[in-house]
Amino acid sequence: MNTNAKKPHFLKILTFVMLSLLLLLLLGHGLFGKKGYLAVRSMKQQNEELSHKIEQLKRENGQTMEEIKALKSDPKAIEKIAREELGLVKPGEIKITTGKPESPPKSAPSAPSQESP
User: Fold this and answer.
1) Residue 106 lies in a domain
2) How far is it, in rounded angstroms, from Cα 64 to Cα 74?
3) Which residue among 34, 48, 71, 74 is least enclosed by CB atoms within 10 Å?
């Protein structure tokens, strides 16, 4: 009779352990699985970052399109770029620059001269 009393108790413990392991596996999969909580949270953060980047690129694109439009239709915009970025001047104008003077180009070091006796 002693063995009969142990079987139901053993089965209860075994069932409890199996259900606990199953629950732990499901919880682990829900947290760390391919589509688990942590993965979804990471994807949402990436999505927000990409959305911000898209908005920034849209603004930059709009500014670039406006600049292109101005360069196609406004001669003053072309003149401004020619003066500021290329350093061009109109005939008869003198270019005056302030700031650091340009350094002269570096020449190759000369070899020591060898005098023959």
Assistant:
1) no
2) 15
3) 34
Inter-residue contact 28 to 20 (CB < 8 Å): no
Tokens linked to 9:
């108790």
Contact at 8 Å (CB) between 2 and 9? no
pTM for this model (two decimals)? 0.49
CA distance 65 to 71: 10
Which domain covers residue 69, as residue numbers? 14-84
Give the tens place of pLDDT for each residue, 33-75: 888 888 899 999 999 999 999 999 999 999 999 999 988 998 8
Q: H-type helices in 1-117, by residue range?
A: 2-32, 37-73, 75-84
Count the domains in the chain: 1
Assess whether pLDDT exceeds 90 at residue 17: yes
Q: What is the dihedral of CA 40, 42, 44, 50, to 10 degrees?
A: -140
What dihedral angle (degrees, nearest 10) is formed by the CA atoms of 68, 69, 75, 79? -30
**For the chain, how big is the Rg over CA atoms in Å?**
39
